[in-house]
Write the structure tokens for this entry.
Amino acid sequence: MTMVEIRSAPHIKADNAVVKIMRHVVWSLLPVCAFFIWQYGLSALALLIVVTASCLAAEALFLRLGKQSGNLYDWSATITGLLLALTLPPGFPLWMGAVAGFVAVALGKAIFGGIGHNLFNPALVGRGFGQAAFPVAIATYTPSFMPGRFMEFIPSSLALPFMMPKDLTAWLNAFHVDGISGATPLARWKFEGVLTSSLDLLTSLSGHMAVGPSPLLILLCGGYLAVRGYLDWRIPAAVMGSAAALATALFAINPHHYPDPLFVLFSGGLVLGAVYMATDMVTSPVTPKGMWLYGALIGVLTVIIRYSGGLPEGVMYAILIGNAATPMIERITQPVAFGTAVKRKEKQQ
């Protein structure tokens, strides 16, 4: 007698699992991290290791203490650490990076119940904490491709815990590194009115610029995830498209006051945020219409914050606001079940 097993939907399942998806995301981030290390040397390498190790340690601690989903080997904490480190200045003091990594997992994920339950992107929670707790250090950038970057650390990386800003300055002067700090292209535009070449920003190959990994490389690595189906292209397309549209309109109105749209797209962390952070499966909408709306909200908010806010960058705040709006976006973009609309009309009549 043939046994028939009846199960609930879905009946067709993809050969994907959390561990597999997260592992591919880590693989795609390796070239980005390698480029970051090539730009800034030992300090960048140490920052990536320390922040990631801190995230893994926090994950292990909260898995042991609490009843939360996930495990230490699902790669989620590794992704949080790598992304958080990539958003920090390369000379960020290592002890501060360790604190930010711990907070990213503790407040960004563990407090909500672990992987799959967090409301906000954990890496951006850690970045937001770092910006609030260490405003001087997080605004201190170092020019890229400095000589000797593979022979010695950026002195601020080894700054002792709880040093006051004036003490940190004295520490740097003791190492004879006057003039090593440089403003980012966004800060130079916002506070000095100086524009950086869009080609230099796209590749990040021009020396002595305080920039992060190449946006072109990030787009290529994100393209790999999109082709494999581990990233929905709608979100980064909506983020960058809406930011470009608003920047183009403002540039057309007053080109002397607003930068060109290419500068807006390739400066700061817009590409990294659009590809790797806004697309977080847990904190972004699952409906196609919701993805477009969510991405457009982030892109528009990024431009508004950059142009009108007191800080030069706005990607972090825009994505966190988008994360907070995700439940509402999903509710208003949820597809209507077949026949539901007709029943509603009949009830109204």
